[in-house]
Amino acid sequence: MGNGVEASRPIVWIIGFFAFLNVYSVQAVLPMVMDDFHTTALEAGMTVGATVLAIGLVSPFIGMLSDAVGRKVVLCTSMFALTVPTALIPISHSLDSLIVLRFLQGLTIPGIAVVLIAYLSEEFRSGGVVQMTATYVGGTVMGGFCGRFLTGHAGHLLGWRGAFVTLAVLNLLGALLVLWLLPPSRRFVPNRNVTGGMQTLLLHLRNRRLMAACAVGFCVLFSLVGTFTYVNLHLALAPFNLSAAGLANVFTVYLVGVIVTPLAGRHIDRLGFMKSLLGALAISATGLLLTLLPSIFFVVVGLAVCSTGVFLCQSATIGSIARTVSEGRSLATGIYYLSYYCGGAAGSWLAGLAFEGWGWSGSVATIALFQGIAATIVLSVWRERGAEAIRN
User: Fold this and answer.
1) Is residue 261 predicted with pLDDT exceeding 70?
2) Whether the predicted pLDDT of 376 surpasses 60
3) Which of 8, 74, 299, 350 allows an S-S link to 66, with CB 3.0 to 4.6 Å?
């Protein structure tokens, strides 16, 4: 199994990369979008919220679909479908049409992210699930970074519309690559029993630890989306006055997560999920507070620390689901992503309201509140005794 894990890591990483290349790409060019369509910060933030909301709404249902028809066919179809709205974004004639196309982008993402987690849970169930999950999260981190970095620099040179032409071409190349390299499922067993699926859904909804993981996921993406959507607008204002290229460079902080997250798998196993989650939340909150200092150095350091904590928290949460759910894994992952991405949509809205009312400090206070809620949930549900049982 060790050889199988190592051989499969590159394609798992690539899938995570392309799944998240698009999700947050518009963040780096939000000031340009605001200028083009003459919108407020909150309205521009909805171009982020629309995508993450669509991901959340579709996630539970795409799990049922992949349970019926297979993992690879749904995953590859979704990757090709992603190229269509991405290619149409450059001809958007209004903010509303841009938001709709961003929503359509989001509808395709669960067919990649949710289905891959189910694929990993089945193909590596005898060992390597946590390590492969960490590899996947590392790919998503790099994809999230490159989406913002490439879009920001391409936007600086070609305008924000030209940046999305670049992303459309990359999406098509990624879809072709995954179709060619991803091995077919060997352990997948089709399940077309809708009644059984509903019974499994009810079983999951009564799983206290799974529901706790979903609630933590809500708070985690609330933090990430709220932070990286509105810190761009904060840094575009005085005293920072960063350009689109400058904002893109700030996202190099994601590279810290690329290095740290894949190395975290073995430590999550050793510490247990409760300690890992609490530690990750503490790290993220510390970084968030650093961004309040009026220095670009401390803002960048704070973002690096904050995002790394979020990625570690995501790895621990997803890993706990893979280890604690024995049946209906795709559906369980879909439920998690429903909560996770609804949290992201809520973050783009509530942190935006706070930004318009009190500036960046208002956004930070709102985000910190939800991180505190996540820690409270972990402490009340993820008892150390349960974590030990999972680890053993």
Assistant:
1) no
2) yes
3) 74
The answer to whether the pTM exceeds 0.85 is no
Q: Quick one: which of 341, 317, 310, 315 has its CA closest to 60? A: 341
Domain tally for the chain?
Answer: 1
Q: How many CB atoms lie within 10 A of CB 389?
A: 11
What is the C-alpha to C-alpha distance for residues 183 and 11, in angstroms, rounded to an integer? 9
Instruction: Give the domain range for residue 88.
Output: 2-179+197-391
Q: Is residue 187 part of a domain?
A: no
| Average pLDDT value for residue range 183-198 | 66
Distance in angstroms (rounded) separating the CA atoms of residues 70 and 242: 46
Residue 79 lies in a domain: yes
CATH number, domain with residue 71: 1.20.1250.20
The Cα 364–Cα 348 span in angstroms is: 12
Domain contains 188: no
Where does residue 93 rank: exposed (0-12), middle (13-18), buried (19+ CB within 10 A)? exposed
